[in-house]
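Agenda item 2: adenosine-5'-triphosphate complex prediction
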Amino acid sequence: MALLELDNVSVNYGAIQAIRSLSMTVEEGEVVTLIGANGAGKTTTLRAVSRLLKVREGRIVFRGQDLTRLAPDAVVRLGIAQSPEGRQVLARQSVQDNLELGAYLRGDRREVVEDLRRMYERFPRLGERRHQLAGTLSGGEQQMLAIARALMSRPKLLLLDEPSLGLAPIIVLEIFTIIRELADQGVTILLVEQNAKLAMNHSARTYVLEAGSITFSGPSARLVNDERVLHAYLGG
Amino acid sequence: QKVATPIEIGVAVAQTSNVALLGQEQVIGARLAEKFFNNQGGINGTPIKLVFQDTGGDEAGAINAFQNLIRDGVVGIVGPTLSQHAFAADPIAERAKVPVLGPSNTAKGIPQIGDFIARVSAPVAVVAPNAVKQALKLDPDIKRVAVLYAQNDAFSVSETGTFQETAKAQKLDVVTVQKFQTTDTDFTTQVTAVLGAKVDLVIISGLAADGGNLVKQLRQLGYKGLIIGGNGLNTSNIFSVCGRDCDGILIAQAYSPQQSGAINQVFVKEYRAQYKKDPPQFAAQAYTGVQVFVEALRKIDRKKKLNTWDLDDLRAELNKAILVGSYRTPLGVISFDKEGELNQKEFYVAQIKMKDARNGSFVFLK
Amino acid sequence: MDFLQNYGFLLATLVQQALLGLSLYFPLLSGQLSLASPGFYALGGYVAAILLVNPAFAGLRDALGNWTFVLTWLVAGLICAVLGLLVGIPALRLRGIYLALATVAFVQILQYVALNLDVTGGAVGLFGIPQAFGFQDRWQYLLLFLPLLAVTLLFTRQLERSRTGRAFRAIRDDELAADAMGIPPTRYKVLAFVIGAVLAGIVGAMSAPFLNTWNARQGTFDASIAFLAYVLIGGSRNMWGPVLGGTLLAALPEVLRPLQDWRLVINGLVLVLASLYLPQGLVGLFTRRRAPSARPAKAEVAK
Amino acid sequence: MTSDASGAPILQARGLTRRFGGLVAVNNVSFEVRRGEIFGLIGPNGAGKTTLFNLMTGLTPPSGGALQFEGRDVTNAAPHRVASLGLSRTFQNIRLFRTLSALENVKIAQHTRTSAGFWRGIFGADRAEERAVSEQAWELLDLVGLADRAHELAANFSYGDQRRLEIARALASQPKVLLLDEPAAGMNSAEKSVLTTFIRTIRDRFDLTVLVIEHHVPLVMNLCDRIAVLNFGELIAVGDPASVSRDPKVVEAYLGAEA
Amino acid sequence: MALLASLMADGFQKEPALDFAQFLQNLLNGLSIGSVYAIFALGYTLIFSILGIINFAHGAIFALGAYLTFTLAVGEFGINGILKNVDLFPGVEGGSPIGFPLALLLGSLLAGLLGVLIERFAFRPLRARGADPLLALVSSLGVALVLVNLIQLLVGAEIYSFPSTIYGSLPPAVRFDVGDTPIVIRTVQVIIFVVSLVILLLLGYVIGRTKIGKALRAVAENPATASLLGISVDRYILITFFLSGFLGGLAGTLVSTSFGISGPYFGVTYGLKGLAVIVLGGLGSIPGAVVGGLVIGLAEAFVPAQFSAYKEAVAFAILFVILLVRPQGLLGRAVIQKV
Ligand SMILES: Nc1ncnc2c1ncn2[C@@H]1O[C@H](COP(=O)(O)OP(=O)(O)OP(=O)(O)O)[C@@H](O)[C@H]1O
Ligand SMILES: Nc1ncnc2c1ncn2[C@@H]1O[C@H](COP(=O)(O)OP(=O)(O)OP(=O)(O)O)[C@@H](O)[C@H]1O
Ligand SMILES: [Mg+2]
Ligand SMILES: [Mg+2]
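Presented output:
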């Protein structure tokens, strides 16, 4: 059984249907990429999984449990973390507080401290700025913080909404290194990314979203060479 | 428009808002009067009916209450509670030519609003001086006086003026004047100033809650001398505020439950039976307001049956009748001058005696 | 006619409250939560009351006759404009609740000053205010308030359409972005604030004769909150909101009079329910979303 | 491609510095931008690029240094003044008027290019101007491909579309200099190449000078006439794309393995 | 404080003993007035700090707490309300079978529960809809109107006072001498001062030092993001309302043991001053509420006698001036905005 399964999911903003009858699966331990043009509904999909949006039709099932009736915090409790679009760092808290709040549900205080140390190692920038208010970080620093914060909860399923956005090339590579490592540790990742080539190189399968529906899907290695995908998303 | 039976008299007082403490006593007083006079046969056989309209706490509410009563065809109105409201609403009645009796409007200028406006509440200036004189009788050595008043209460402001003049006239030395708000609860600052001034008489013009708290804090912080309370403190409500510390306050009264007239004794008995305490001045004045209407109406009715009158004519006639009569009321014998100002003969000075922490009485002083 | 006799005061009050709601709406247009309106209302009332009863102005009154009333409006509007500028320029650096509270502080200070001055009649206030144009009945004040309302609404509509209105909206939405787009926020915020102040002042000046008396209890914190409720319950994004809100909320306690003791309890309940169930405010019930204006034909051709 | 005025500096920074507490976000930075060029600004995260934009647009007052625009000192000018002189920008963290429609967003930005005062608006004497404003707004929306969604609220647009709308809004004030803070963020490769063409087009069509912050190196190299590189608040290199990308300091600080 | 006092004393060389005593007395007065403001404002600021709205019903809860405790401790009603003939504890001599401390606890708990109900029915639906936060202000205003008038309907507008026996055999005032001048302060005031300090320290600890506090701050700043981190937003908001109601009820009762319950509007009259206090101290700052209360209390206490007419205006004048100088209030943090 798939770890995460979206079954005919539709989501509306008021009268506007942003995703319609979308079905997809993410297997345990797998990295899956979701790509699509601006406004295709990628963010909407991730927000629906985290229950920040109401699901109008269909079911979202995680490890056999239907998420569609749960509160957002209950979803996190099941082991799903998200690094959201627009970073959404808590601007008035320090970097360190943001990270500690990422581990809010964890009781293993000592491990948390260890993880913090590891995060600062990975992102030295954050380490230097641990007492700075998150709202005053530069765009890219905030992006690092958002990703690190999501990691702090040690999720089973990690949802990343354009993690490379606003990051310098070196850091982008670092992010993908992390993704690979996590995948090796068995963490499942659903990745929304505009840097499609890079993302597909790091993932097993890819879904292509167009105007709220899946138009292509399959092994990334195959899709990355698909003419149509190439043309539309990979800039030829 | 014909006059309806039973004869409707309007009562527009503050039943809600933070003036309700006063207003609800007026409702009680008026209700008791209604019951009493109807038991006596009303207006020569025709019962009266009080129509209540809440003025709430603001001027617009008072005007609305008056307009509603006028529209409903009452022959006259007892109300409103506050002088400020009277300045807003009385002109409405005046223009509609509906007689008004102010039950508790003591500010200068109320009866002068118009021909149809009169009041059963004595203006401040005549009541207050008695208390100062009484205090000097009790303790001729008094020299230094502190005066405190609620500056946001129209009544207290004019009362304190009278107090201060009287004190000066009596050759007393007003060493400090302190102001507060009726909504205040903490008076430590004022009390400290009073204690620092080493006075032997304190005169307070305020309402029950603030005045009572002031007295309590004065006593708790060690003031030992005499205290005079203005008319706003003239209510048994104060007992529950200052408790035992109320003991000994001198109060100048426009009304005393101990007034010996027969009607007052009936009123006091009725009130006590229902509420287990002495009636306060506000109840007595509202009662008086209703009584004056009833007695004036009786006089008219004897000449020409009320239900044969045109409403407008009756209102005009009633206004005339009110001003010429003299009435034996719980306030004693009263009458009105041409403008509608009250002539009241009897004023009182009482001293509070507390039985225990919650019950006490106003003991009438000669 | 009887109807007007009986309900004239109420009707005029409703229009008056609608105007006061509007006076709060202007600062809100530029995103400023100002609760200063009651202060300017009180001030306007005092200006009028003083001009109309103070013996010092007896000569002026005799000379001007009924024009005195017009003069009171002008003077009240002018004084409020000046004071609005003086208070607005420093205060409008504040935002949200901080601004609201600073304006409330301003209202309170005005109130205590009024309470302590002789010209304002202290706690008793000023009374025996002559009736505008010899009006006999309260409903006649509709002849003042209604035209003022009409003019104000027309003014508001034009304002909202104009470049100035757009600048207000931009500042309301994001002050920093508006600044970066070339709109000087302070200037526009002060402008919006002053418009509200002037309107409140003029309404105050008309209301002094309307209420027969004026005292320091006019324009209190309670009034601030009431006006705010008008705007929010009515709908804060449309000029009809404060009008509807002011009218209906002011009417409510009167309509509920038959409930006697329960009327204010029910009044409160209605407030709660209205905020819960009218997301767009009252106007939301009446306005269908207007079809947005189509693209001008010329531009289409150009394409 | 560049006009005859090419070479004349339109923007000059002299020793611009900005401290935040102990941190020097922009440190003694001096450079010139020439009229009509497309000037790139790159550097690692937190290097001070956005802060530099903020200094240039008046949103952050500098701790030191001076800035001249067309020979005029604008070091401490308020944002709205800078905007009215002809500098317009987009934001890294998108700052649209979220509760207003796309059309209104673009109309508002024409504030500095219109003149109808308060009373003219009240008395309806601004008809002609309003018509022009509306026409231009529609044209700009056309230009970025959002005209068919003109009445939608800005908040309802997806991330990439919001970026487009911001560009349209910045153009609406008819700037002389356009500052774009990561305009391609959130766009895929195909969209990025469209954007590159688009920036060139508007530069030519509106006679613009363009400053771009961008992390996508190929885009920058391809688009810009000259590039400045910031690292830890300091300017470590300025020059044409080829020379900058060969500069060892730049490779070490920024390009890393990818170069 | 002591240093300041001695400086002041030096300033008045002529009669140092007397003036120092005067100063000390004013200081104590100010602290006692201020602690009443502070204790009222604490519950206010709690809700503000998390929801960013003013709960106008707080004044009503404050009063209701006092009424509830009074009912439980004394069990007697007045002459005007619906409940006038109801005997709560029939057959019990002396009013109530439970003592004041228990009544205080129960009354405050009930007030906390009321806070929860208000949250559930007057605030949550608005939040769920993502409505304009200002609407919550109107909704709470409605709740306040309902509560105040219900109280009036049930028990009338009269004044109620706790018997002086509730604090056992404590003397009504504490006094000591400085030089020859006696300094006095009411015992009740001391109790209120101490209680508000204790509450402050407790709250300060919970919010500043624990995970709960961190989560609360996250909810306050951005509920959606907080929920994305696994924080149960609704639960925290509920807890906040309970705490605020509990503190409000407790504070109301304490204050009314000092001043009596002067009618249903008892709490409302603190509302505006309380607002001034929390804004002055810095919105959402717990120590700010206390500092704000004390500053305003002290300012009022030090207003010279001949200006006592303007005593009330002083609080607001200070507020106005401070806001102009320090827009975020005394202890508030400036909102940083990076673009
Ligand atoms: N709050 C909203 N209200 C209404 N419509 C919305 C809202 N948010 C998004 N939409 C619409 O839903 C559609 C999908 O948006 P979404 O943000 O999911 O796109 P996306 O694929 O993440 O795009 P991008 O790459 O630009 O981030 C778009 O058409 C967008 O305009
Ligand atoms: N208000 C502030 N307070 C404290 N530090 C700040 C503030 N604003 C910016 N900084 C710091 O200054 C540095 C420069 O920030 P800036 O936003 O200019 O970087 P940037 O070059 O735009 O980075 P990015 O590419 O990540 O957007 C950062 O390290 C940031 O943390
Ligand atoms: Mg997206
Ligand atoms: Mg940046």
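Discussion summary: The mean pLDDT of chain A is 93.
Owner for follow-up: CH.
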